[in-house]
């Protein structure tokens, strides 16, 4: 199985830690973020991994070139010319992902004890085009899932603005995206053009006709290490 780690962001929300270091290489509890994600994926049986790069790209490439993990093959998707956003990064990696039934997409700044194996099993059992890991957490925009666990839209928690893309089956429940997902390779066929795109917007575009499922992991801890205050908070609260 293959995975792509989204690591090309500028890291502006993590300053000053990213003044001279790419976000992917900022150490958290003694290990660079990207290495921790790679090791977690490998522990779940994912050994073919691509990392997209942009900010301080050369430093990330050098680090990965020197990171040797038994059985793990690492690849680079170069976005130094143009940032492709979360969805466009997947489209740019389509040749790498070709031939897979499913693949994993994992943000580099996510720190969680989510069980990737459980996520994979949930995706297989749910027969969804994509399965997003979600949980109850504070966020400005929550995703809305119905009683079948299908994505139906979103709501802005500050303005009350709501966008629905399909009629729900049963009651709606709101969750925050935790930025780990499993996607069926057929997803790529719906987007033949490679361009900067938001992955969430791509999900919403498809959700009217296809199941975009939810893997709820409320019991797990989860931190967005891409924000400095969250980084400090996680370092105090969690011992890995």
- Overall number of structural domains: 1
Radius of gyration: 17 Å
- Amino- and carboxy-terminal Cα gap: 26 Å
Number of discrete helical segments:
7
Largest sheet features: 10 strands, mixed
Report strand %: 25-35%
Shape verdict:
globular
Q: What is the average per-residue confidence, as pLDDT, rounded to a whole number?
A: 96
Question: How many strand elements?
Answer: 14
The parts where pLDDT drops under 50 for at least 5 residues are none
CATH top level class name:
Alpha Beta
Characteristics:
single chain, Spore Coat Polysaccharide Biosynthesis Protein SpsA, Chain A, alpha/beta, 240 residues, two-stranded antiparallel ribbon, ten-stranded mixed β-sheet, 29% strand
Task: Give an overview in words.
With 240 residues, the chain is α/β, with parallel strands linked by helices. It has one domain (2-237): Spore Coat Polysaccharide Biosynthesis Protein SpsA, Chain A (Alpha-Beta Complex), CATH 3.90.550. The chain has helices spanning 33-43, 57-65, 85-92, 94-97, 116-126, 199-207, 228-237; strands spanning 2-6, 27-28, 31-32, 48-53, 73-78, 102-107, 110-112, 130-135, 141-145, 151-156, 162-164, 173-184, 212-216, 222-224. It is globular, with a radius of gyration of 17 Å. The chain starts with a strand and ends with a helix. The mean pLDDT is 96.
